[in-house]
Design a protein that fits this description.
The chain is mainly beta and 199 residues long. 0% of the residues lie in helices and 54% in strands. The protein contains no helices and 16 strands.
């Protein structure tokens, strides 16, 4: 584990789960992560493949919270993705992705792992203003996506064992690497009142 670092937009000491090729913080609310080739976090439910080498910057938030970011990346290879991550341990984690699908479309994808990964593609998300958000509401978590219409679409509502750290991940499972920019990072300690009303 490397020495803790800070990102002005979030109230947590952060550390790398895996070191990136490069990274930088700009303007206090923008994080750029360069992932190397063949980097992923996934445990195939059909076995035996398990991957856990994607760079991720994470920290621990107390209590209820929401964490959101606008995601930008050049989706060059299938499964290239920018990700918001919940990570309790190697057996219990969840990721929320803007990912290039096998059909060549930017796609909202969620993966919840309890021993093995439960992988779900939700919908294509074209455009220049794709935002992802993770929230903790008591013992539950919610993933929401916004596609520029001002509405937060509920993608997944679930529980996860442990007390996961939260953060940002970049991956390029089949490619030669990718650069992900997390812009307009926002954190709030307010409890999300309703996971389904688009707030």
């Amino acid at each position: 584990m490397t020495e803790p670092l800070t990102l002005p937009a979030v109230p947590a000491r952060l550390h790398w789960l895996n070191q990136p090729v490069d990274w930088k913080v700009t303007g206090g609310d923008t994080l750029t992560i360069d992932a190397g080739p063949r980097t992923d976090l996934f445990t195939d439910p059909g076995g035996p493949d398990r991957f856990a080498n994607a760079p991720a910057l994470v920290g621990r938030f107390d209590g209820d919270f929401t964490l959101s970011a606008r995601i930008r990346l050049d989706l060059a290879s299938t499964y290239d993705a920018g990700v918001l991550l919940l990570h309790a341990d190697e057996e219990h984690w969840a990721k929320f992705c803007l990912e290039l699908s096998p059909q060549g479309r930017p796609t909202i994808v969620s993966v919840v792992t309890r021993g093995v990964s439960d992988d779900c593609n939700s919908f294509p998300a074209d455009g220049e203003d794709i935002r992802l958000r993770v929230s903790r509401i008591g013992t539950a978590f919610a993933f929401h996506a916004s596609t520029g219409d001002g509405f937060w679409h509920l993608i997944r509502y679930f529980a996860l064992d442990g007390d996961p750290e939260v953060g940002f991940l970049a991956q390029s499972p089949l490619g030669d690497g990718c650069t992900v920019v997390f812009e307009e990072i926002r954190h709030s300690a307010e409890r999300l009142a309703d996971v389904r009303n688009g707030e």
